[in-house]
Amino acid sequence: MDGGTVRVGLVGCGGVAGWHAGNLGGIAGVEIAGLADPNDESVRRIKAAVPALAGVPAFGSAEELYAAVALDAVEINTPHTLHHGQVLEALDHGLHVLCEKPMACSPEDARAIADRAALGDRLMTVSYQRRVDPAYSYLRRVVASGELGEIQTASVTVGQNWKSLTAGSWRQDPSLSGGGMLMDSGSHLVEALLALTGQPVAAVAATVDDAGSPVDINATALVRFAGGAQGQITVIGDLATVWIERVLVSGTGGVLVYETDPQHPWRTGRVQHYRDGTVIQPLGLPAPFPSMDAAWIAAIRGTAENPAPAEIGVAVADLTDAIYRAARTGQVVEPTAAVLAD
Ligand SMILES: NC(=O)c1ccc[n+]([C@@H]2O[C@H](COP(=O)([O-])OP(=O)(O)OC[C@H]3O[C@@H](n4cnc5c(N)ncnc54)[C@H](O)[C@@H]3O)[C@@H](O)[C@H]2O)c1
């Protein structure tokens, strides 16, 4: 790295890339050195929204970007089915990668990324920002500390007006999205469910509904974890309001409840922690990092752990795939991870 500066490229310059660019702009010693997007309008919009990008060179593809600009790292912000090829390409160019969720749309593609990342010394991180969210960090910390005792159940719900919001976009084109709301926003809650039990998945039953769309809109799954915990995930893609997210984790030593406020859907919600008949509502929760980008850059610099390594992307791809298979077959299914790891 040149004098400590981390030179980052953005592949995909649409909606989420603007958010990432803003986050990166707030980190000392980070320079956005190049952009890649086949859509000139996306480049025009991100440059208009983030004035610091005005003079940054833009290219029609990642390949052209990598050929023209010396980079240390890249953020991949493209439609889902492109992630697998683009992450492998970036790792082959010796770049640290922050890939938007989902890392890949199948367990096989996810496994290939994790195996490739394990061969090198570049960081592969999935942009699951709940890994750095103050409330989710509190929930994970309490579970990991053992304070909740043996985890009995974990249930997560996410609801959004996703169906109307994404109508006509790549998100409802399976060849680019790899799936619907479960593959998109649902992916964050699949990650949360896995993190909050800390156990591998043993079996899954599910029902999925496309609500007249080309992709899944609503999904509910029951999960048996290898350590004995039971899990449940509900994904509502045609919610009659903007956004809601709920978590309930019960253990032999307490209960954690988390809920966002639909009136303020983008804010971190409220945690309630029940133990010994008392309820603690932690306030002023510390944020481990102000953004996923900041956590990733710290990990690149060796001052923090990788906040969401590729193996998390593999576990999410595996459970997501099991939910789709269980719904399609009407059977209780096992995840494919163990088979792929052989
Ligand atoms: N972490 C989060 O909370 C969050 C929020 C929104 C989106 N996302 C994720 O970010 C990714 C992008 O979503 P978005 O909302 O920004 O979508 P978007 O449609 O706004 O932007 C996608 C961009 O990718 C570009 N693109 C398409 N093919 C490309 C290619 N081959 N090379 C380079 N660029 C290409 C498109 O032209 C477009 O500008 C998705 O994985 C999505 O799930 C994550």
From TrEMBL:
Boundaries of every GFO/IDH/MocA-like oxidoreductase domain copy: 137-256
Domain of life: Bacteria
SUPFAM superfamilies xrefs: Glyceraldehyde-3-phosphate dehydrogenase-like, C-terminal domain (SSF55347), NAD(P)-binding Rossmann-fold domains (SSF51735)
InterPro entries, per database record: Gfo/Idh/MocA-like_OxRdtase_N, Gfo/Idh/MocA_Oxidoreductases, GFO_IDH_MocA-like_dom, NAD(P)-bd_dom_sf
Record Pfam families: GFO_IDH_MocA (PF01408), GFO_IDH_MocA_C3 (PF22725)
Gene Ontology molecular function terms on file: nucleotide binding
Protein name from the UniProt record: Oxidoreductase domain protein
